[in-house]
Protein 1
Amino acid sequence: QVQLVESGGGLVQPGGSLRLSCAASRFTFSTFSTATMNWYRQPPGKEREWVASINSGSGITRYADSVKGRFTISRDNTKKTVYLQMNSLKPEDTAVYYCQAVGYWGQGTQVTVSS
């Protein structure tokens, strides 16, 4: 069963923006609202890397240095969805982006930054 479903990827020019969504519709409200939600990405030919996290309680966020100041992670517990707002995108942000939580991974969504 698919637990996490990402969407919102696509092709964007450098300097542009995208918002990724990750729906955890099969999670119970309790499971989602108490889970730390994470975004990872895997650039072409490289290892998967952590991008951002948001915790369950106070909504404290953490970011990889490479995206700090440009990306924003947020969550809507009522919709059981986590978001990744990506601004000022660079070609090096090109990757498959994955949502991860409580041992589950989504299938990924492709983000390509190119002119």
Protein 2
Amino acid sequence: QVQLVESGGGLVQAGGSLRLSCVASGFAFSTKTMGWFRQAPGKEHEFVAHIAWVTNTIVYADSVKGRFTISRDNAKSTLYLQMDALKPEDTAVYYCNTNPPRPSWGQGTQVTVSS
């Protein structure tokens, strides 16, 4: 059974930092391109970043480029997202998933950035 468990969210002031983690199980994590996505209230899931499984090629959404850093630890089946210089518009529930994403999502972790 596939499980994706996100953690590390919280309330932070604009300009602050958070580090998100996602522990995956039930599938071959090291052979998948993994991504972070976010969903603001009333909106669809939005792509944030992904890291490829073979080349470790990284892609960021323009809105987070230069502020967020994605990384992975295949030995721990864990995906990370270091978020710096946070802005109020980064407020959302953050999810990890394969990319392209599987139909089912984890519970996500709430990130709230106050101005």
Protein 3
Amino acid sequence: EVQLVESGGGLVQPGGSLRLSCATSGFPFSTYAMNWVRQAPGKGLEWVSIINQPGDKTRYAESVAGRFTISRDNDKNTLYLQMNNLKPEDTAVYYCEGPGGYRGQGTQVTVSS
């Protein structure tokens, strides 16, 4: 059974940082590219970032480029998202997305003063 469990969200002030984690199981993690996506209140799903299987190639949405960093640890079957200089518009539920579009339950990120 494919499982993805996101964690690390919370309430942070504008300009602050958070590191999200996504623990995975039930599939060969190291053989799949992985994504982070997010859903802001009242909006649709927005793609945030992708990382290739070995973790040496990444891409970002224009809205987060230069502030967010995606990474992975294939030994731990875990995906990460380091988020710096957070803005109120980054407020959303963040999901990691694996094979077949599987997503976890998400982790809430709220950026507010």
